[in-house]
Structure formats: C-alpha cells, structure tokens
User: Fold this.
Amino acid sequence: MNPIDRLSEIFSHFPGIGPRQARRFVYYLLSRDQTTLDTLVRSVEDLKRETSQCNECMRFFNGTGSLCSICADTSRDRSLLMIVPRDADLDQMEKSGSFKGRYFVLGGSLPILEKEPERRIRIRELLTKLAREQSTLREIILAMNANAEGENTEDYLRQALRKGDTFAESGDNSPASSLTITALGRGLSTGSELEYADPETLKNALLHRTK
Amino acid sequence: MNPIDRLSEIFSHFPGIGPRQARRFVYYLLSRDQTTLDTLVRSVEDLKRETSQCNECMRFFNGTGSLCSICADTSRDRSLLMIVPRDADLDQMEKSGSFKGRYFVLGGSLPILEKEPERRIRIRELLTKLAREQSTLREIILAMNANAEGENTEDYLRQALRKGDTFAESGDNSPASSLTITALGRGLSTGSELEYADPETLKNALLHRTK
Amino acid sequence: MNPIDRLSEIFSHFPGIGPRQARRFVYYLLSRDQTTLDTLVRSVEDLKRETSQCNECMRFFNGTGSLCSICADTSRDRSLLMIVPRDADLDQMEKSGSFKGRYFVLGGSLPILEKEPERRIRIRELLTKLAREQSTLREIILAMNANAEGENTEDYLRQALRKGDTFAESGDNSPASSLTITALGRGLSTGSELEYADPETLKNALLHRTK
Amino acid sequence: MNPIDRLSEIFSHFPGIGPRQARRFVYYLLSRDQTTLDTLVRSVEDLKRETSQCNECMRFFNGTGSLCSICADTSRDRSLLMIVPRDADLDQMEKSGSFKGRYFVLGGSLPILEKEPERRIRIRELLTKLAREQSTLREIILAMNANAEGENTEDYLRQALRKGDTFAESGDNSPASSLTITALGRGLSTGSELEYADPETLKNALLHRTK
Assistant:
C-alpha cells in the first residue's frame, strides 16, 4: 500500500474518524511544509518514550517513573477509588476538582453481549490492585457513562467484584466483602428539561434533592 | 385577513412552530374532509367548557369542579409540595410514579432580566397558597429545568419565599421560616457521558453517589 | 374521549407533530384567553367556506370562484404546465418568480411500492385536464422533490402520461405523444459542497454548467 | 512542551478537529502497541518522499515524476480545464466518472474580505498555466462549492482571469479573451425538497430542466 492509502487507513481507526475524513487528514499533511511533518514524526516517536503508564491507576502520563502525579500524591484519600472508563474521563473529573481520592482507568467499557470482557477492559489488573489494597480501601466508586454500555460495564464490575474469582488462588476473600461499592449519582444534568426527562432520572433527581 | 392567513398566524404562535410549518398546518386542514374540521372546531369549543383549572395546583384537568384528582386525593402527602414550571412537567413527573406529594404549576419560567415576573408566573397564587397551608406544609421542592431560565426562576422563587412580602399584610410570618426548601438533585442524567459532563454535574454525581 | 385527549389526537396528525408536542399544543390553548380560542374556532369554521379549490390546478385559494388567481391570469403561458406535489411547493416556486406558466397540484407523492397511487395523488384529475388542454399544452414540467419518493412519483407520472389509458375511451391519443415532458434540473443546490456531492449531482452540475 | 501536549496541539490543527478530540487521538495512540505507532511514523516519513505534487494540476499523487496519471493521460480532453478547490474535490469528481478533461487544484477557497488571496490559493500558478496553454484551452470550468466562500472565490477568479494581469509583462492578451469561462450548474441536488429550496436553486432547476 502506498503511504497515502496507508496513512488514510491508520487515521480511519482514530476515534470518531471515517475513511473520508481520514483522507482529508492526509491531504492536510501533504499541504503542510516538511517541518510540520517532522514535528509530527518526532512527537509520535517521543510519545511512548517520554510517556509512562502508571502502575497503579493505569493512566498514561507525561514523564518517567512507575507512578503518576495523582497516585504519588500522599495527600489524596487512599480509602476511595474511582473507576473510570478512559483517561479522558479521569481528566474531566480532575478538572471538576471535586474528587480527592484516587482513580483506576479501566481502558474502555463493555458493549452488551461482549464475549471477552477481559480483553476489552483491565479487569485482571483491577482485581489484582484491589487484592493488594484490601486493607486501606473502603469505597469503590463505579464512574461509568450513563448509557447502555456504561450500565453493562457497571453490572459486569459489580459481579466481578462480588465473585472476586482471581483471589481464590491467594486464599483471599472477595474484595467486595470488605468494601462499599457505589456508583455516580443520577439526576438532572446541566441542560435537562423536566418534560423530556426519563422516569429514572426524575426518580433520582427527587431522591437526591438538595437544600 | 383571510382565514388562511389568520389560521397561519394563530398556528405560528403554537409552541415550537414557525410561519412555514403553520402554513403547512393550514394546507393540511384544507385537504381534510369537513368532518375532521368539525371535530376540531367542536373540540376547541368544548375545551374550556369541559376542562377546569384546579384551584389548588393551578393545573388544567378534564372535568368540572374546583380540585383536580391529585389535589382531591387524600392519600397524597400534604406536607410535600413540588413546584413545576408547566402542566407537561407535572404529567412527566406523575408518569415516573416517584412522587407522592402534591404539586403547584407555576405556569412558566423566568428569562434572565425578566422585568415583570408576576405576569409570567403565578407567584401571587403560590404565596397565597403557601400562607394558607403553613400549618401542614413541611417541604417545598423547586422542580425547575436544569438550564439558565430554570436556575433564574429558582433564584427568584427562593428570594420570594424568603421575603414572603405578600404575607406582611396578613401579619403572617414569611412561609420560608417554617419550611424546608429543596431543589431537584443534579447528577448524570440518562445518556450522559463523563467526558462531556460539566464540573457541576460531576460534582453532584459524586456527592449523590448510590450503593 | 375528553376534549384534551381528543384535541391531542387531532393535533398529533398534523404534519410533523408527535403525541407529546400535540399535548403541548392543547396546554398552550388552555393557557390562552377565550378570545384566542374563539378566533381559532371561527377561523377553522371560515376556512372551507371562504377558501375554494381551483378547478384547474387543484390548489386551495382564498376567495370564491372556480379559478385561482394564477389560472385566471390570462398573461400566464398556457403552453407550460408544472406539476408540483403540494400547495406549499407551488407557493415556493411562485415566490422565486421564475416560472410564468401554470401549475397542477398533485396533492402528494408516491412512496415506493404504493399500491393505490390513484388514492394518493390526483392522477385522474391530471389526465382529464391534460386531455382537455391537448391543443394548447406543449410542455409538462414534472417538478418533484429530488428524493426517492419524488423519483418514484416522476416514474409513475411518465408511465401514466405515456399510456394515457384514461383517454382510450374518448378515442384520444395519449397526451404524451403531443407533449414534451421535462423534469426540474439537477445540480448543486445552494450550500452544496463538491466533496460531499453525489455522482448524479456532479454529473448534472457539469452537464448544466453556465457561463 | 511534552509529547502529549505537542501531539494534541498538532492534531487540533487537523481539519475539523478541536482540542478535545485531538487529545482523544493522543490517548488512542498511547493505547496502541508500538507497531502501530511505528507504522504511523514510517507512513508520515514516507508520505512526502513517495508522494509528488503534479506540476500541471498541483494535486498530490502517489509515486514520483512531475505529472499525475490524469495529466499524463493523453486521452483526456486538453481543451477543458476544471478548477477545483481541493484534492478531495478532484477525487470526488473523478469518482463520478463524468468529466473527461483535466483539472487544476486551487489549494483552497477565499473567505469574504480575504486580504491576501495569492497566499490562500494558487492563483499565480493558475495564471502561468493558463498562459502556457492558451493555444489548446477552450473552456475553464470553475467548480467551486455552492456557498458564500465558493461564490467569493468564483468572483475573484473571474476577475483575475479577465484582468490576466500577470500576462501583461509577456505582452500576451488576457487568457479570458480567448476562453469560455463556465461554472458548475445549480439546480436541485439529491435530497432537495421544493418547499425548502431557495429561489436561486428553483430558478436554475427550471432553467436546466431535462427531458
């Protein structure tokens, strides 16, 4: 395959990009000067070298070392662990400034009827981490998207945490027995109108009413 | 004005309808047989005659009498009053089956900088009702839309309830002094994705997390 | 059925309106004063009485008489007949000020596989009219929407005009034999971008290029 | 800047991509294995080396040499030149299979009030090419997008071709004097509905009606 087609193919796997926009990316690159292309090449080459994956939360971060700045921060509450689908979700939650515990990045979410969950999400890494932190952890917050895929992932996680099957070998009890498992609250998100809200959302909005 | 233009004009004031769709409505009516038009005419004529406005919650209901079925239902919790912008919001909340108190339909909401709030919403009727029910009421739930207009209306209502100015004449205390005022809870509404959620929504989703 | 439900039902058959918006229309009417409702009732009552359907083009027009202002206008070119799906299409074409012939309003268009075309569109009335105007008519312009339903209707009309079956009884020839049948030109409509244009549109845009 | 931010910055300049999606691209790359990243790097490195820009039409093409396959194809009509904004437009027109002449890729289009047109589009290269091909060329087709920017670019090109100022020095006549300049035809593009068509589109659809 020639580089135009090869690059189009690569770009068409980028999240949210179809074949047509992928090709526009290639034409865009062709119309740039060599310096821009060199910067792109160098940045991609540097990307993995200068970026590390945190051993604890599995997020990618700039720099070297085994721990990201959040996991290394001793002032964060070690008793709270929020499980998010992706790095971008963690970024958004951090930007809100409202969470002071630590995170675990699942690496994705599970479509309904997914046959090989353990290849889609970091469930093994999660269970291992939970076994390791049994003594300090008091609450796991399942922060999934409020859609079918998110709910499916939440169901899967609750089951996996209850069974805690990977712990059998080590003789440990299921982590769930000593932990509270919670999920992000549902209610009216910004922009919602009552008339178009679903019963579940209204029920939760009523349940969680605030002074 | 001829009836085509007159009807187009009337339809163009229907909620969400522009002049072009209004005219399509007229052409649609012209293409119907006389029976359909007669039914429309008769239904509009009957509308106000066979529909009443509830003296308590101000909603419109089918039938005669001064009380709607909800306000007449003695099994509903008289200590809880939910204030909703419109009849359709009340319908939607009832469909969710999650609220067992009573309602008050405000009749609209307040745009930012609205100069004559009392002409837009039933604030006088509300304050009168609250004064009347001081002894039984324990909580008022402000169930506004989660948008700028809804928040503006909520601010206005909180202020009006605090001042309770209309009660001065009757020598009553402000209703707010003896009441808890709450608002519907914010959080992830169905369909929300973490990555696109605003900080306020995330903060509330975290605050209201559920087991 | 009570008038609220009856009116909701009627409005839900208006073009483009679902049950939820239909109910909002009813609540809107309930919140209007009696004068507005009376005006609506009177306008609907007047509608058919003060509106006529043109014997020639089948459009609805304000006033009495058997001919609309366009068909009565002797300065319009009687050799050109444009067939449009609906009254609103005729309005839009007149607004463009670019057509000086006369019209025929078909009353709709034909979905693919429609089993009873003669109940959906005024094909009989059209063929009768064409037979009557054989001597003056030189061109029929099929002005259908540029979508599947429009193309299907165009195919049906071409076939019907070619057969001209209804003319058999009167011993006339098919109208198509003495007429040119044309269709509106395809090309780039305002707002089109080349990159997203379909092959058919590009082919026609090239074919009809202008100086 | 670290490679995550640097890459986000680069991707955010890709056509149609904002900062948020740019960052998702980076996270996507981080989650791929090293082989995928190596392929991306190699493809970008190869891109300019294995891709050439055609000396005649200015499009980018896979391979080496000074002429692209279309410009080198002696069976294409040398008397017809279609001027398109971008490579992707040329691709789309070729896919339609309806044009047998040659192309010139302008490299963009001109926003209203653009102060330096010659930096946005290849107007100098175009005028030079036209001077060179004066003897064979009979028609220039301005194939611009049917929007404000496209119309502005068409106006600019017509003026530039009329003045043909760069030819003054060489003593040549303006190319426009010996050439027909046309533009793609306007009409109903696929999917258009009469009721929503603008007057210009209707006028052209009528003008270009087909048998």
About this structure: DSSP finds nine helices and six strands in chain C. The interface with chain A takes residues 20, 195 of chain C (CB under 8 Å).
